[in-house]
Every structure is written in structure tokens, then in C-alpha cells.
Amino acid sequence: MKYISLISSVLIVSILIIATIYYQNREPLLSPEAEWEYQQQQSVTEIPEAEPLRGIYVNDQIGYSLQNDKLQITYDGGNEWEEVPVEKEYLFAGEYNGNQDELIEDSFLLTEQYATFLFDAETTRLIYSTDQGATWQESVITESKPAIRYRKVEFQSDTFWYAILSFDRTMSQEGAAVYISADQGNTWQPTNMPDTTRLVADGGFVDADTGFIAYGTINPEEPDMYVTNDGGESWQETTFEMPSKYDRVFVMPNAPYKEEDHLALIMEQGPNGDYYRDGLIRAKFISNDNGHTWEFVEEVEPEHEEQMG
């Protein structure tokens, strides 16, 4: 009997000790309000640190990024970024969409003074900043909504901006238009155009009066370029004095540029070119009559071309 009593006492003491330890170590009871706040704190997940933006630079300091489906620009090598208020998809709208990892060539300008981006959203527009992205303005280049293929925006001065568009391609034919702005991109007016529907290859102005449009992107057999000397009111076909050894070799002229006291351009071999070094060799031509006739000067190695223009 005494043995049973002893065992019972030991069990009771053990239970009291275990209960005391559990009570001292258990989490305190919370009020409903405190319990809700505790659960909220537990459910908050740690936000991962944003991935640094990788810029695509036009020079050492000025560049842009398309990460996170946003267009952002920097003027200090990527330390600070300004978001451009335009949907990324609008920058690639049209028949030609680019690779969408980089902006379409010639569809934008980034300089110390201007940041301009051509885009297509119901109408073809330009969004631009004159204060490195602090503020932005938009203008309508054309109210129509064509399926844009070729696009280029450029300026020669504060009072001469231009945009070249090609659109609504059907096989090897398409429409094209040149638009001029004399008020820093605020308003745009169309010019007349050459009488051809071939595919636009390139174009540009060297000043407010003299501009060029080159045609032929599908199996061209000879250069086809038009010049205006009156700001697009009229256009004339240019003439190339091509050495016979280069017939059907150099066929696609790039937009001309000013060089000393004359104009110059680089001409490519075209999509099927295979003359020397797998078709990489180009040709340089110059004009002394404001772009109407062009004479061959020399072959140009690819590594030397960047020194020109």
C-alpha cells in the first residue's frame, strides 16, 4: 500500500513539474487583434531586390533599357534612370517589329539635347523630351494608321526635323511618306514623294533642302535613289557613274552625308552580294552637284567604314 502511494506521489510531482515547464515555455495567448497582426507579419514575404538595369548605350553616358517591359533612359552611365511614358509594345508596332530586345534602328534619337522615340498607337506619333527625360511631349506625325515597315526620325537643327515611313507592303511594293517639322517636332507636314512604289531601303536629309530616298531591298540589280533640293517639293532620279567591274555588285546606297565640300555615301552589295570577303566590302561614292550624279571613289573595308560619315 505504501509502495502504491509512493508511486502515485512521484507521478503527481512529475506531472506538476512537466506542466510548470510547459506553461513557462509556451507562447503567450494573444487577443484576436494581436493574433491577426501576428499572422499578417508572418505572411509578408521578403521582396527580392530589383535586378540592376542593363543599358544599351549610344555613347559612354547616354543609353536606354527595355527591361521590365519599360523604356527607360539614362544620361549618367546608368546611375539614374528616367522612365519614358510610352507602352513598350507601341515602339514595335507595325509590319516590322524588330527583335524587341533593342529599339528598331533609326526609330529613336538620344542626344544631350533631345530624347525622341517614334511609336505607333492608333496614330503614328513621336514622344520627345528636351530636358533629358524630366518632362515629355507628344505629337502626331500622321493621323492614319498604316502597317509601318521602314521608319526613321532625325533632325538637322531645331527648325528641321524629319520622319521617313514606309507602309502597307504588298509583295515588293509599298507606300512611303516623308514628314517635316519646323517647330521641334510639335507639328508635322507631309512632302511630295518620288513616283515609285518600290521598297524603301534608306533615306535622309543633309540639310533642310537636300534629301534622298533609296529604293530596292529585294534582289536589286542597280542603285535606285532620288534626290530633292527643295525640301521635298520635287524629286529627281540620281545617276551613278559605276565602273563596269562593279555592275550588279554595288546596288544599295545608304543615306548620303556631307564631307568637306561635297556629299558622300557608302553603297552596299545587297542581300545576295558575294563580291570579296563574303559580300562585306562596300563602295564609296561622292557627288559635287548636290547629289544628282555620283562617281565611284574606292572600295571600303568594313572596319574603315565607321571612320566615314
Automatic annotation (TrEMBL):
PANTHER family: SORTILIN RELATED, SORTILIN-RELATED RECEPTOR. The chain crosses the membrane at residues 6-23. The keyword DNA damage does not apply. Keywords: Membrane, Transmembrane, Transmembrane helix. Coiled coil: none annotated. InterPro entries: BNR_rpt (IPR002860), VPS10-sortilin (IPR050310), WD40/YVTN_repeat-like_dom_sf (IPR015943). This is Oxidoreductase. The keyword Transmembrane applies. It comes from the Bacteria.
